[in-house]
Amino acid sequence: MKLDTSIIISTYNSPVWLEKVLYGYNNQTYQMFEVVIADDGSTSKTSEMLERLKEEVFYPIIHVWHEDDGFQKTKILNKAIQKCSTPYIIMSDGDCIPRKDFIEQHVKYRVEGSFLSAGYFKLPIKISESISKEDIYTERCFDINWLTKHGLKSFLKSAKLTSGVIKAAILNRLTPTTPSWNGHNASGWKSDILAVNGFDERMQYGGEDRELGERLVNNGLKPKQIRYSAVCLHLDHPRGYVTEEMIANNKSIREATNSNNSVWTDFGIKLINK
């Protein structure tokens, strides 16, 4: 079977969450894909889990890893992009379980000259911890009634889980949310990502994904919203790696990207002073 889609999943020392995510990809209706793990310096627990999962899942797993040097997601994502063997890339995170039609929806809506933007349904920590392999394979963890029985109290954005095909398509068009490149759920052509030199490696947490999307738009691509069609569950976790300095630095870079209508970054895949 010829592969035509690559899934890049970013992770860092979260093998329990990542394993649940990989079960979600083993449940996909569309199966012509590979998974590329962008590992920002995890310990051997992650690689050991991946070796075990390779024997269980139907799709190939490529593990891209570098030494732990703090939050360096943009650097490992650029390395992962280069390892993708197919022309189309879907990016998500190691804490986002995809619904069984997740890849199918991205493939359905992909067109030349565009990238796709979607979102997630966020779960509280207790439900995140309780979801089992069986819950994923049966898809009951995507059922709003099952989630309610297991402690879900907020129904905000539940339309992502309850909308059928027609309603989802309508909501995609009507949503006031501006489509952007989201690290947890976005996709585009590899050639388009390479044309802007990938992620800006000066950036750490806070808008680093959106900055890539802004340069894609500056290069003429049209973002398309599919937030109600391509659905994933976001497993809760702490974010101890975030600092005000990171946020301020990223904000400054994004402001320059937008004010200058920048397309290319000199700090991406092809580093000028590497």
Structure description:
Helix 1 packs parallel to helix 2. The chain has helices at about 15-25, 45-55, 75-85, 100-110, 125-130, 135-140, 145-150, 160, 165-175, 190-195, 210-220, 245-260, and strands at about 5-10, 35-40, 60-65, 90-95, 95-100, 115, 120, 185-190, 220-225, 230-235. It has 12 helices and 10 strands. It has one domain: Alpha-Beta Complex (Spore Coat Polysaccharide Biosynthesis Protein SpsA, Chain A). The model has no long low-confidence stretch (mean pLDDT about 95). It starts with a strand and ends in a 15-residue tail after the last helix.
Task: Write a brief caption for the model.
By secondary structure, this protein is an alpha/beta fold.
